Amino acid sequence: MSVRVVRRSLAAGLPLAVLATVCVAGTATGAPDGHGRPERQARVTGTAVLGDVPLGRFSNGLLPGTVPDDRGVKLGGIGSDIYPAERPGEFWTVTDRGPNGQIKVGGKKRRTFPVPGFNPSIVKVRVSGKHLRVVDAIPVTTRSGAPVTGLSNQSGRDEAPYTYDASTPLEYNPDGLDTEGIVRAADGSFWLVDEYGPSLVHVSPRGRVLTRYVPRGLDLAGADYPVVEALPGVLLHRKINRGFEGLALLPGGDLVIAVQSPLSLPDQGAGESSRNVRLLRFSTKKQAVTAEYAYRFDPVDVVDPGEDDTSELKISSVVALGGNDLLVEERTDRAARLHRVTLPRDRGILGSAWDDPTTSPSYEQLGDPAAAGVPVLRKSLVVDLGKVPGVPGKIEGVAVTGRDTVAVINDNDFGMTDGPEAFDAAGRLVDSGIRTSVTQIKLPRPLRG
Protein backbone atom coordinates (compact mmCIF):
# COMPACT_ATOMS: atom_id res chain seq x y z
CA MET A 1 0.00 0.00 0.00
CA SER A 2 1.37 3.44 -0.81
CA VAL A 3 1.78 5.72 2.19
CA ARG A 4 -0.01 9.03 1.89
CA VAL A 5 0.17 11.68 4.55
CA VAL A 6 -3.46 12.64 4.90
CA ARG A 7 -5.19 13.57 8.09
CA ARG A 8 -7.66 10.66 8.05
CA SER A 9 -5.05 8.02 7.54
CA LEU A 10 -2.82 9.52 10.18
CA ALA A 11 -5.61 9.76 12.70
CA ALA A 12 -6.37 6.10 12.05
CA GLY A 13 -2.86 5.28 13.19
CA LEU A 14 -1.45 4.02 9.90
CA PRO A 15 2.33 3.88 10.31
CA LEU A 16 4.44 6.24 8.28
CA ALA A 17 7.67 4.83 9.58
CA VAL A 18 8.91 1.54 10.92
CA LEU A 19 12.54 1.45 11.90
CA ALA A 20 13.91 -0.33 14.94
CA THR A 21 16.75 0.70 17.16
CA VAL A 22 18.44 -0.90 20.11
CA CYS A 23 16.63 -0.21 23.37
CA VAL A 24 19.21 0.79 25.94
CA ALA A 25 18.23 -0.17 29.46
CA GLY A 26 19.81 -1.11 32.74
CA THR A 27 20.88 0.67 35.89
CA ALA A 28 24.08 2.67 35.86
CA THR A 29 25.98 2.87 39.12
CA GLY A 30 27.90 5.83 40.46
CA ALA A 31 29.79 6.97 43.51
CA PRO A 32 28.59 5.87 46.97
CA ASP A 33 25.83 8.05 48.42
CA GLY A 34 27.47 8.43 51.85
CA HIS A 35 26.00 5.23 53.26
CA GLY A 36 28.12 2.84 51.23
CA ARG A 37 25.41 2.30 48.64
CA PRO A 38 25.80 3.18 44.96
CA GLU A 39 24.03 6.43 44.14
CA ARG A 40 21.05 5.94 41.85
CA GLN A 41 21.61 7.22 38.32
CA ALA A 42 19.32 8.18 35.47
CA ARG A 43 18.88 5.48 32.84
CA VAL A 44 17.30 5.08 29.43
CA THR A 45 14.27 2.79 29.48
CA GLY A 46 13.36 2.90 25.80
CA THR A 47 14.10 4.48 22.44
CA ALA A 48 11.71 4.83 19.50
CA VAL A 49 13.04 5.83 16.09
CA LEU A 50 11.34 7.43 13.09
CA GLY A 51 12.01 5.65 9.82
CA ASP A 52 12.42 6.89 6.26
CA VAL A 53 9.46 8.94 5.01
CA PRO A 54 10.03 10.94 1.80
CA LEU A 55 9.66 14.61 2.61
CA GLY A 56 7.81 15.35 -0.61
CA ARG A 57 5.19 12.71 0.14
CA PHE A 58 4.69 14.09 3.63
CA SER A 59 4.53 17.74 2.55
CA ASN A 60 2.31 17.27 -0.49
CA GLY A 61 -0.09 15.14 1.53
CA LEU A 62 -0.69 18.19 3.73
CA LEU A 63 -0.40 20.98 1.16
CA PRO A 64 -0.60 19.51 -2.35
CA GLY A 65 1.97 20.70 -4.86
CA THR A 66 4.18 22.59 -2.43
CA VAL A 67 7.24 20.33 -2.86
CA PRO A 68 7.87 19.35 -6.49
CA ASP A 69 11.32 17.95 -5.64
CA ASP A 70 12.45 16.95 -2.15
CA ARG A 71 16.01 16.18 -3.38
CA GLY A 72 15.94 12.87 -1.55
CA VAL A 73 15.36 14.43 1.86
CA LYS A 74 13.37 12.38 4.38
CA LEU A 75 10.96 13.63 7.02
CA GLY A 76 12.96 14.83 10.01
CA GLY A 77 13.52 17.98 11.96
CA ILE A 78 10.43 17.26 14.09
CA GLY A 79 12.63 17.27 17.19
CA SER A 80 12.47 21.02 17.72
CA ASP A 81 10.26 20.36 20.75
CA ILE A 82 7.98 17.77 22.31
CA TYR A 83 4.79 18.21 24.35
CA PRO A 84 2.60 15.47 25.89
CA ALA A 85 -0.59 14.74 23.96
CA GLU A 86 -3.84 13.35 25.32
CA ARG A 87 -2.82 9.67 25.42
CA PRO A 88 0.22 8.19 27.16
CA GLY A 89 3.01 7.62 24.68
CA GLU A 90 1.74 10.28 22.26
CA PHE A 91 3.36 13.67 21.82
CA TRP A 92 2.95 16.87 19.85
CA THR A 93 6.14 17.90 18.09
CA VAL A 94 7.02 20.70 15.70
CA THR A 95 9.37 20.98 12.77
CA ASP A 96 11.70 23.90 12.33
CA ARG A 97 11.95 25.90 9.08
CA GLY A 98 12.92 22.81 7.12
CA PRO A 99 16.07 21.41 5.56
CA ASN A 100 18.76 24.09 5.54
CA GLY A 101 22.51 24.31 5.53
CA GLN A 102 25.46 26.58 4.89
CA ILE A 103 27.92 26.74 2.01
CA LYS A 104 30.83 29.15 1.72
CA VAL A 105 30.94 31.20 -1.45
CA GLY A 106 33.70 33.77 -1.84
CA GLY A 107 34.69 33.24 1.77
CA LYS A 108 31.19 34.05 3.10
CA LYS A 109 28.59 31.58 4.31
CA ARG A 110 25.28 31.40 2.50
CA ARG A 111 22.13 29.90 4.03
CA THR A 112 20.66 27.25 1.75
CA PHE A 113 17.07 25.99 1.55
CA PRO A 114 17.19 22.78 -0.54
CA VAL A 115 13.40 22.31 -0.30
CA PRO A 116 12.11 25.90 -0.28
CA GLY A 117 8.49 24.78 -0.55
CA PHE A 118 8.66 22.90 2.74
CA ASN A 119 6.19 24.24 5.29
CA PRO A 120 6.65 24.08 9.08
CA SER A 121 4.20 21.60 10.59
CA ILE A 122 2.88 20.42 13.92
CA VAL A 123 3.33 16.66 14.03
CA LYS A 124 1.72 14.24 16.47
CA VAL A 125 3.73 11.08 17.08
CA ARG A 126 3.15 7.85 18.97
CA VAL A 127 5.82 5.73 20.64
CA SER A 128 5.10 2.14 19.69
CA GLY A 129 7.83 -0.04 21.12
CA LYS A 130 11.00 0.76 19.21
CA HIS A 131 9.14 2.62 16.48
CA LEU A 132 8.05 6.25 16.30
CA ARG A 133 4.92 6.66 14.18
CA VAL A 134 3.27 9.82 12.86
CA VAL A 135 -0.44 9.76 13.69
CA ASP A 136 -1.41 13.32 12.76
CA ALA A 137 0.10 16.37 11.08
CA ILE A 138 -1.08 19.97 10.84
CA PRO A 139 0.57 22.46 8.47
CA VAL A 140 1.07 25.98 9.82
CA THR A 141 -0.68 28.37 7.43
CA THR A 142 -1.48 32.05 7.03
CA ARG A 143 -4.84 33.71 7.61
CA SER A 144 -5.86 32.90 4.02
CA GLY A 145 -4.70 29.29 4.34
CA ALA A 146 -1.48 29.69 2.34
CA PRO A 147 1.75 28.03 3.50
CA VAL A 148 3.88 30.18 5.80
CA THR A 149 7.07 28.45 4.55
CA GLY A 150 10.30 28.51 6.51
CA LEU A 151 12.02 31.19 4.43
CA SER A 152 13.77 34.20 5.93
CA ASN A 153 11.61 37.26 6.64
CA GLN A 154 13.61 40.45 6.16
CA SER A 155 16.54 41.51 4.01
CA GLY A 156 19.35 42.98 6.08
CA ARG A 157 18.17 41.32 9.29
CA ASP A 158 17.83 37.63 8.44
CA GLU A 159 20.16 35.42 6.48
CA ALA A 160 19.64 35.70 2.73
CA PRO A 161 18.03 32.47 1.43
CA TYR A 162 19.63 30.49 -1.42
CA THR A 163 18.98 27.32 -3.39
CA TYR A 164 20.50 24.00 -2.33
CA ASP A 165 23.85 24.70 -4.02
CA ALA A 166 24.04 28.34 -2.80
CA SER A 167 24.05 29.56 -6.42
CA THR A 168 20.68 31.29 -6.74
CA PRO A 169 18.96 33.69 -4.32
CA LEU A 170 15.44 32.90 -3.15
CA GLU A 171 12.80 35.46 -2.24
CA TYR A 172 12.30 36.55 1.34
CA ASN A 173 8.90 35.79 2.86
CA PRO A 174 7.49 37.90 5.73
CA ASP A 175 5.19 34.98 6.61
CA GLY A 176 8.13 32.60 7.07
CA LEU A 177 8.61 30.93 10.46
CA ASP A 178 11.53 29.08 11.98
CA THR A 179 9.36 27.33 14.53
CA GLU A 180 10.86 25.75 17.64
CA GLY A 181 9.00 25.33 20.99
CA ILE A 182 5.41 24.08 21.18
CA VAL A 183 2.68 23.82 23.82
CA ARG A 184 -1.03 23.10 23.48
CA ALA A 185 -3.58 25.23 25.31
CA ALA A 186 -6.77 23.99 26.95
CA ASP A 187 -8.86 25.25 24.00
CA GLY A 188 -6.89 23.09 21.57
CA SER A 189 -4.91 25.96 20.05
CA PHE A 190 -1.12 25.87 19.93
CA TRP A 191 1.57 28.31 20.94
CA LEU A 192 4.87 28.19 19.08
CA VAL A 193 8.06 30.20 19.27
CA ASP A 194 10.16 31.33 16.33
CA GLU A 195 13.83 32.11 15.79
CA TYR A 196 13.48 34.85 13.19
CA GLY A 197 11.64 37.63 15.02
CA PRO A 198 12.15 36.29 17.53
CA SER A 199 8.44 35.79 17.95
CA LEU A 200 5.67 34.06 19.84
CA VAL A 201 3.02 32.60 17.53
CA HIS A 202 -0.56 31.66 18.43
CA VAL A 203 -1.95 29.01 16.08
CA SER A 204 -5.48 27.67 15.79
CA PRO A 205 -6.21 23.95 16.32
CA ARG A 206 -6.22 23.63 12.50
CA GLY A 207 -2.87 25.35 12.06
CA ARG A 208 -3.76 28.90 11.02
CA VAL A 209 -1.69 31.67 12.54
CA LEU A 210 -3.97 33.77 14.74
CA THR A 211 -1.35 36.28 15.93
CA ARG A 212 2.40 36.64 15.77
CA TYR A 213 3.90 38.64 18.65
CA VAL A 214 7.22 40.28 17.80
CA PRO A 215 9.66 42.76 19.42
CA ARG A 216 8.82 46.45 19.35
CA GLY A 217 10.49 48.10 16.41
CA LEU A 218 10.74 45.00 14.21
CA ASP A 219 8.53 46.62 11.56
CA LEU A 220 7.59 43.39 9.80
CA ALA A 221 5.46 44.36 6.82
CA GLY A 222 3.49 42.24 4.38
CA ALA A 223 2.56 39.24 6.54
CA ASP A 224 -0.73 37.48 5.84
CA TYR A 225 -1.70 37.32 9.51
CA PRO A 226 -1.86 39.81 12.40
CA VAL A 227 1.55 40.94 13.70
CA VAL A 228 1.63 42.63 17.12
CA GLU A 229 4.72 44.35 18.52
CA ALA A 230 4.29 43.24 22.14
CA LEU A 231 7.77 42.00 23.12
CA PRO A 232 10.71 44.02 24.50
CA GLY A 233 12.62 45.82 21.77
CA VAL A 234 15.94 44.66 23.19
CA LEU A 235 15.20 41.28 21.59
CA LEU A 236 15.95 42.81 18.20
CA HIS A 237 19.56 42.14 19.16
CA ARG A 238 19.13 38.38 19.11
CA LYS A 239 21.93 36.44 17.49
CA ILE A 240 21.08 35.23 13.98
CA ASN A 241 19.54 31.74 14.14
CA ARG A 242 19.41 31.96 17.95
CA GLY A 243 16.07 33.58 18.69
CA PHE A 244 13.38 31.89 20.81
CA GLU A 245 13.68 28.14 21.26
CA GLY A 246 12.16 27.01 24.56
CA LEU A 247 8.49 27.40 25.53
CA ALA A 248 6.58 26.30 28.65
CA LEU A 249 2.91 26.54 29.62
CA LEU A 250 2.41 27.32 33.32
CA PRO A 251 -0.66 25.94 35.14
CA GLY A 252 -2.36 29.36 35.21
CA GLY A 253 -2.02 29.82 31.46
CA ASP A 254 1.04 32.06 31.34
CA LEU A 255 3.87 31.16 28.98
CA VAL A 256 7.60 31.14 29.66
CA ILE A 257 9.82 31.78 26.65
CA ALA A 258 13.57 31.22 26.50
CA VAL A 259 15.97 33.12 24.28
CA GLN A 260 18.29 30.43 22.94
CA SER A 261 21.55 32.35 23.36
CA PRO A 262 22.81 35.63 24.83
CA LEU A 263 21.86 38.73 22.88
CA SER A 264 24.52 40.44 20.76
CA LEU A 265 24.93 43.40 23.11
CA PRO A 266 26.73 45.61 22.50
CA ASP A 267 28.05 43.50 19.62
CA GLN A 268 28.37 39.94 18.33
CA GLY A 269 31.62 39.32 20.19
CA ALA A 270 30.05 40.14 23.54
CA GLY A 271 27.19 37.75 22.88
CA GLU A 272 29.49 34.95 21.75
CA SER A 273 31.47 35.04 24.99
CA SER A 274 28.53 35.63 27.36
CA ARG A 275 26.82 33.10 29.64
CA ASN A 276 23.87 35.39 30.44
CA VAL A 277 20.53 34.65 28.79
CA ARG A 278 16.94 35.81 29.27
CA LEU A 279 13.59 34.16 29.95
CA LEU A 280 10.29 35.98 29.45
CA ARG A 281 6.91 35.48 31.09
CA PHE A 282 4.00 36.21 28.76
CA SER A 283 0.41 36.62 29.91
CA THR A 284 -1.94 35.08 27.34
CA LYS A 285 -4.82 37.01 28.95
CA LYS A 286 -3.11 40.41 28.79
CA GLN A 287 -1.21 39.56 25.60
CA ALA A 288 1.85 41.15 27.15
CA VAL A 289 5.19 40.31 28.73
CA THR A 290 4.85 40.60 32.51
CA ALA A 291 8.34 39.56 33.64
CA GLU A 292 11.86 39.03 32.32
CA TYR A 293 14.28 36.78 34.16
CA ALA A 294 18.06 36.65 34.14
CA TYR A 295 19.48 33.14 33.73
CA ARG A 296 23.17 32.21 33.71
CA PHE A 297 24.66 29.18 31.96
CA ASP A 298 27.13 26.87 33.64
CA PRO A 299 30.62 27.06 32.12
CA VAL A 300 30.69 25.34 28.76
CA ASP A 301 33.21 22.70 29.86
CA VAL A 302 30.87 21.76 32.72
CA VAL A 303 27.95 21.24 30.34
CA ASP A 304 30.13 19.55 27.73
CA PRO A 305 33.55 18.39 29.00
CA GLY A 306 36.19 19.07 26.37
CA GLU A 307 34.28 21.94 24.76
CA ASP A 308 35.86 25.39 25.17
CA ASP A 309 33.62 27.56 22.96
CA THR A 310 31.10 29.38 25.15
CA SER A 311 29.01 30.29 22.11
CA GLU A 312 28.03 26.62 21.82
CA LEU A 313 25.80 26.96 24.91
CA LYS A 314 22.06 27.14 24.25
CA ILE A 315 18.70 26.82 25.97
CA SER A 316 16.52 24.59 23.82
CA SER A 317 13.74 23.53 26.16
CA VAL A 318 11.85 24.83 29.17
CA VAL A 319 9.17 22.67 30.81
CA ALA A 320 6.60 23.55 33.46
CA LEU A 321 6.72 21.34 36.56
CA GLY A 322 3.80 22.88 38.43
CA GLY A 323 3.35 26.16 40.24
CA ASN A 324 6.22 28.41 39.18
CA ASP A 325 8.78 25.62 38.85
CA LEU A 326 10.53 24.89 35.55
CA LEU A 327 12.98 22.48 34.03
CA VAL A 328 15.54 24.37 31.94
CA GLU A 329 17.75 22.54 29.45
CA GLU A 330 21.28 23.84 28.91
CA ARG A 331 23.00 22.16 26.01
CA THR A 332 25.59 21.99 23.30
CA ASP A 333 25.13 19.77 20.27
CA ARG A 334 26.78 16.88 22.17
CA ALA A 335 25.57 17.16 25.75
CA ALA A 336 22.70 18.53 27.85
CA ARG A 337 21.84 19.18 31.49
CA LEU A 338 18.42 19.76 33.07
CA HIS A 339 18.09 22.26 35.92
CA ARG A 340 15.15 23.09 38.14
CA VAL A 341 14.38 26.77 38.73
CA THR A 342 11.60 28.56 40.58
CA LEU A 343 10.32 31.76 39.04
CA PRO A 344 9.91 34.70 41.42
CA ARG A 345 6.73 36.74 41.62
CA ASP A 346 8.39 40.02 40.62
CA ARG A 347 9.07 41.51 37.19
CA GLY A 348 12.75 40.61 37.24
CA ILE A 349 14.72 42.85 34.90
CA LEU A 350 11.75 43.80 32.72
CA GLY A 351 11.84 47.51 31.94
CA SER A 352 15.14 48.03 33.75
CA ALA A 353 18.37 49.46 32.37
CA TRP A 354 19.26 45.95 31.23
CA ASP A 355 16.50 46.25 28.60
CA ASP A 356 18.17 49.39 27.22
CA PRO A 357 20.60 48.48 24.40
CA THR A 358 22.72 51.53 25.25
CA THR A 359 23.44 50.40 28.82
CA SER A 360 27.17 49.87 29.30
CA PRO A 361 28.28 47.37 30.29
CA SER A 362 25.33 45.38 29.01
CA TYR A 363 23.77 42.55 30.97
CA GLU A 364 25.42 40.17 28.51
CA GLN A 365 28.86 41.59 29.38
CA LEU A 366 28.55 41.01 33.12
CA GLY A 367 30.93 38.37 34.42
CA ASP A 368 29.03 38.20 37.72
CA PRO A 369 25.49 39.50 37.20
CA ALA A 370 24.50 38.95 40.84
CA ALA A 371 27.35 41.18 42.01
CA ALA A 372 26.00 43.89 39.71
CA GLY A 373 22.60 43.66 41.39
CA VAL A 374 20.95 41.50 38.74
CA PRO A 375 18.50 38.97 40.28
CA VAL A 376 19.73 35.79 38.61
CA LEU A 377 17.47 32.74 38.80
CA ARG A 378 18.72 30.10 41.23
CA LYS A 379 18.97 26.63 39.78
CA SER A 380 19.65 23.07 40.89
CA LEU A 381 20.86 20.23 38.69
CA VAL A 382 18.29 17.48 38.06
CA VAL A 383 20.21 15.32 35.61
CA ASP A 384 23.27 15.47 33.37
CA LEU A 385 22.02 13.81 30.18
CA GLY A 386 25.54 13.77 28.79
CA LYS A 387 26.40 11.09 31.35
CA VAL A 388 23.40 8.86 30.60
CA PRO A 389 24.27 6.05 28.16
CA GLY A 390 21.93 5.88 25.18
CA VAL A 391 20.93 9.56 25.05
CA PRO A 392 21.59 11.02 21.56
CA GLY A 393 23.13 14.38 20.78
CA LYS A 394 21.34 17.61 19.94
CA ILE A 395 18.43 17.19 22.35
CA GLU A 396 16.02 20.04 21.64
CA GLY A 397 12.80 18.88 23.30
CA VAL A 398 11.99 17.61 26.78
CA ALA A 399 8.62 16.41 28.12
CA VAL A 400 7.75 15.31 31.64
CA THR A 401 5.90 11.99 31.47
CA GLY A 402 5.68 11.01 35.16
CA ARG A 403 6.91 11.73 38.69
CA ASP A 404 10.40 10.54 37.82
CA THR A 405 10.35 10.09 34.03
CA VAL A 406 10.97 12.32 31.03
CA ALA A 407 11.01 11.89 27.27
CA VAL A 408 13.51 13.73 25.10
CA ILE A 409 13.65 14.22 21.34
CA ASN A 410 16.61 15.09 19.14
CA ASP A 411 16.81 17.29 16.08
CA ASN A 412 18.35 15.33 13.20
CA ASP A 413 18.37 18.40 10.88
CA PHE A 414 16.56 16.36 8.21
CA GLY A 415 19.77 14.37 7.73
CA MET A 416 21.54 17.45 6.40
CA THR A 417 25.11 18.58 6.88
CA ASP A 418 26.84 21.82 5.94
CA GLY A 419 29.06 22.30 2.92
CA PRO A 420 28.83 21.48 -0.79
CA GLU A 421 29.21 17.77 -0.02
CA ALA A 422 25.68 17.70 1.46
CA PHE A 423 24.35 16.85 -2.01
CA ASP A 424 25.74 14.61 -4.72
CA ALA A 425 26.37 15.54 -8.35
CA ALA A 426 22.71 14.86 -9.17
CA GLY A 427 21.52 17.20 -6.44
CA ARG A 428 20.33 14.40 -4.14
CA LEU A 429 20.94 14.50 -0.40
CA VAL A 430 23.88 12.61 1.04
CA ASP A 431 22.09 11.69 4.26
CA SER A 432 23.97 12.02 7.55
CA GLY A 433 22.39 8.81 8.86
CA ILE A 434 21.19 10.53 12.07
CA ARG A 435 17.61 9.57 12.91
CA THR A 436 14.89 11.30 14.85
CA SER A 437 14.25 9.47 18.10
CA VAL A 438 12.22 9.81 21.28
CA THR A 439 14.21 8.55 24.26
CA GLN A 440 12.50 7.74 27.54
CA ILE A 441 14.51 8.28 30.72
CA LYS A 442 13.94 7.31 34.34
CA LEU A 443 15.41 9.86 36.72
CA PRO A 444 17.17 8.99 39.99
CA ARG A 445 14.60 10.89 42.06
CA PRO A 446 11.07 12.30 41.61
CA LEU A 447 10.57 15.69 39.93
CA ARG A 448 7.51 16.29 42.05
CA GLY A 449 6.71 15.42 45.60
Give the rounded overall mean pLDDT: 92
> What form results from the Cα inertia axes?
globular
Strand order of the largest sheet: 11-12-13-14-15
Alpha carbon gap, first and last residue? 49 Å
**What would you report as the Rg, rounded to the nearest angstrom?**
21 Å
- What is the level-2 CATH architecture name? 7 Propeller
Name of the level-1 CATH class: Mainly Beta
* N-to-C order of helices and strands: HEEEHEEEEEEEEEEEEEEHEEHEEEEEEE
By secondary-structure content and strand pairing, the structural class works out as mainly beta
Q: Helix content range of the residues, please? A: under 10%
| Total beta strands | 26
Number of helices: 4
Q: In a nutshell, what does this entry contain?
A:
The protein has helices spanning 7-11, 55-62, 268-273, 300-303, and strands at residues 29-32, 38-40, 43-49, 82-84, 90-94, 101-105, 108-112, 121-128, 131-139, 161-162, 179-184, 190-194, 199-203, 209-215, 227-231, 244-249, 255-259, 276-283, 288-296, 314-322, 325-331, 336-342, 379-384, 395-402, 405-410, 437-442.
Keywords:
about 450 residues; Methylamine Dehydrogenase, Chain H; 4-stranded antiparallel beta sheet; 4 helices; globular
